[in-house]
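Entry 14. Ran structure prediction on the chain below.
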Amino acid sequence: MQRKQRDYRNWKQSNAPYLIAMALAFVMFMVIAPEVNEGNAMAPTLKDGDVLVVSKTAYNPNRKPPEKDSMVILEKTYAQDVYEDNIIGRVVGHPGDTVAIKNGKVLVNGKEYVTDDGIAGAPEDMKKVKLEMDEVFLLCDNRDELIDSRNPDMGPVDMREIKGNVLLRVWPFSDIEYLKKK
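Output, structure tokens:
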């Protein structure tokens, strides 16, 4: 009996680093994922080639929507007519909100929307859109790009299509930054 206990203890000590590494890898791939930003749709906040950490957060009409002003990522398959890669956008409107663009201003429920970083406006007017109870409205920070809910091929986004929240930028090292809305 003592020999079995000693063998088990030795096995545990010699394999502990591998077991910990496997547990961490499992958690990493189930909870967070790396993502490379392609293109300049989120400039100046994100640059082409930035490596991001994304939390795998599921949303649906029965749960709280992603926070306004936070960045989310959509699956590649969501809007293939709009962009060939994952789409990253900033949440501007929540279920039940009305979003419009008039005279270069983004209006959410009649009030001008400006990000915490001061990004405002959009180049082209857009008629009012009333969001359904399962939809959010996304805008790119580079408002000259039309890879967001303004694009008629995409429109408001069903919350179930959100792959996760952008948490932080880890590359380039000189630009490491926490990006999740506080």
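Residues 7 and 143 are 64 Å apart (CA to CA). Will compare against last week's run tomorrow.
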